[in-house]
């Protein structure tokens, strides 16, 4: 069994076009009891996440984080420096979320080849090594298949020690095994496919298999890991059965599967509270990331569970 930790709740923000819009989101999240605001890294976000995150940290007490930086769009040496700067200027409140990249449209827009997933994961694994070297060494020298770095100085250091928290989420064995060995926070999420999310990969049996992969890869550090998931769909309702049936018809699940899906929450406040407690007991999931459209409706749940 994973270590049972107190609940903490984050908001995964949608895009905004000005400082005022970003700060309004952040202040709402703070007022509703969330402790962290996470910003995705997409080309169609007009404001770079490093800029919006710093504005949020400057204006609120929230922790901040990337959800997640796309490795293929950011050289790991420069990203490590950006992460260290974000942690320094937020006074130790930054969480570094990293991913391999997956949206074909973005790769086409940027003129970057979308390599097969195995290559992207291998490149990501090298990048992760470089980023950790930056955090722990005075100088980085690295020679791999995808990256070559010769004596890069690491003058800016993060505030958090031994390094700022690293988040890696995934739905497949290889990425989750990397997360088990290298991350501090492991995201249990549905597998991305060319047709979208495979929602069946976020059902309880699939999560049991994921935990087995993680336990095997993590070894002795398994008890140190924090587990999270991202809530993409939520319905606060007194009639969970019909709501689950309707949602399930959109995502290819039965009503019961929808109620059991790790990335869906349906029901009254009491029912959702009980469901999150059950998932924590079964899978150790204590870090709940709520996508922005649902942050207000789930605020009563946050008030009941945060820090407990």
TrEMBL record:
<dbReference type="GO" id="GO:0046306">
    <property type="term" value="P:alkanesulfonate catabolic process"/>
</dbReference>
<dbReference type="InterPro" id="IPR050172">
    <property type="entry name" value="SsuD_RutA_monooxygenase"/>
</dbReference>
<dbReference type="InterPro" id="IPR011251">
    <property type="entry name" value="Luciferase-like_dom"/>
</dbReference>
<dbReference type="InterPro" id="IPR019923">
    <property type="entry name" value="Lucif-like_OxRdtase_MSMEG_2516"/>
</dbReference>
<keyword id="KW-0288">FMN</keyword>
<keyword id="KW-0560">Oxidoreductase</keyword>
<protein>
    <submittedName>
        <fullName>LLM class F420-dependent oxidoreductase</fullName>
    </submittedName>
</protein>
<keyword id="KW-0503">Monooxygenase</keyword>
<dbReference type="InterPro" id="IPR036661">
    <property type="entry name" value="Luciferase-like_sf"/>
</dbReference>
<dbReference type="Pfam" id="PF00296">
    <property type="entry name" value="Bac_luciferase"/>
</dbReference>
<keyword id="KW-0285">Flavoprotein</keyword>
<feature type="domain" description="Luciferase-like">
    <location>
        <begin position="16"/>
        <end position="192"/>
    </location>
</feature>
<dbReference type="GO" id="GO:0008726">
    <property type="term" value="F:alkanesulfonate monooxygenase activity"/>
</dbReference>
């Amino acid at each position: 069994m994973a270590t049972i930790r107190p609940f903490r709740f984050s908001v995964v923000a949608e895009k905004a076009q000005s400082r005022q819009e970003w700060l309004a989101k952040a202040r709402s999240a703070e007022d509703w009891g969330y402790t962290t605001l996470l910003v995705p890294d997409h080309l169609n976000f007009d404001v770079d996440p490093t800029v919006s995150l710093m504005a949020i940290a400057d204006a609120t007490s929230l922790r901040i984080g990337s959800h997640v930086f796309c490795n293929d769009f950011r050289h790991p040496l420069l990203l490590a420096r950006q992460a260290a700067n974000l942690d320094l200027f937020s006074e130790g409140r930054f969480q570094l979320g990293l991913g391999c990249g997956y949206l074909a449209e973005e790769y086409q827009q940027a003129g970057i080849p979308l390599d097969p997933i195995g290559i992207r994961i291998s490149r990501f694994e090298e990048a992760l090594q470089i980023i950790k070297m930056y955090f722990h060494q005075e100088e980085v020298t690295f020679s791999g298949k995808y990256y070559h770095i010769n004596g890069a100085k690491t003058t800016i250091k993060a505030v958090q020690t031994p390094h700022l928290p690293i988040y890696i989420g995934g739905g497949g064995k290889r990425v989750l095994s990397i997360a088990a060995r290298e991350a501090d926070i492991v995201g249990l999420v549905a597998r991305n496919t060319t047709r979208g999310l495979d929602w069946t990969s976020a059902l309880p049996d699939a999560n049991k298999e994921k935990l087995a992969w993680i336990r095997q890869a993590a070894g002795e550090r398994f008890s140190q890991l924090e587990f999270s998931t991202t809530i993409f769909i939520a319905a606060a309702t007194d009639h969970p059965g019909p709501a689950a049936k309707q949602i399930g018809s959109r995502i290819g699940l039965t009503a019961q599967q929808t109620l059991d899906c790790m990335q869906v929450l349906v029901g009254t406040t009491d029912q959702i509270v009980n469901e999150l407690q059950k998932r924590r007991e079964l899978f150790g999931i204590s870090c709940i990331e709520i996508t922005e459209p649902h942050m207000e409706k789930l605020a009563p749940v946050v008030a009941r569970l945060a820090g407990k």
